[in-house]
Amino acid sequence: MDAPKRRTDPQTATEAMIRVGAFSRLPEVLTSLGADPAAVCAAAGFDAMLFDDPANPVTYRAASHLFRTSAECTGCPHFGLMLGQRSGLDSLGFVGHLVKCAPDVRTALRSLVRYMHLHIQGATPTFTDDGKLAMFGYEIYAVGTEAADQITDAALGTALNVMVALCGP
User: Fold this and answer.
1) What is the pLDDT of residues 25-63, one digit of tens each?
2) How far apart are CA 122 and CA 145, in angstroms?
3) Pairing state of beta strands 57-59 and 17-19?
4) What digits encode the pLDDT tens for the residues 60-93?
5) What is the DSSP letter of 86?
6) CATH architecture for the domain at 16-167
7) DSSP string, 38-57
8) CA distance 59 to 155
9) Is the separation of the CB atoms in 105 and 167 below 8 Å?
10) 122 dihedral zone (left: phi>0; alpha: psi -120 to 50; beta)
11) I want to staple 102 with a disulfide (CB 3.0 to 4.6 A). Which of 108, 127, 141, 163 is the partner?
């Protein structure tokens, strides 16, 4: 007898996913800007209860819609930067812990690039090093991403905090 087939939504079966831990400080930033996080989440069609567990996965598309809605509801054009300022290795879950335990910065950044797909799909960090110049970046590849500027700003703010954690102020 064949096992019952699992029904999957064809649209979400291949969609990029992200753990809410990557943007877990979003409610805090909304509150600091005078917005009600529950109301903003509701306006974006996002379940605010997902923030209760940073390991909860959501589609990259839903997260990007929440970023756009958050920036619009607060009227803050630099919302992503504010979020990135409050994020760091702790927002990257077990990948952040791996990076923190690396023996040197080069290994840390290579580990971040190698394993980030376990925490975030839809975007990827990049790292190149030719011995003289090292470059660290972030590229979004998820289809249907909204507010790419806000997301990129948050990622770059987080990256700055990661570098400070690894190298010092």
Assistant:
1) 999 999 999 999 999 999 999 999 999 999 999 999 999
2) 9
3) antiparallel
4) 999 999 999 999 999 999 999 999 999 999 999 9
5) T
6) Alpha-Beta Complex (3.90)
7) HHHHHHTT--GGGGG-TT-E
8) 17
9) yes
10) left
11) 108
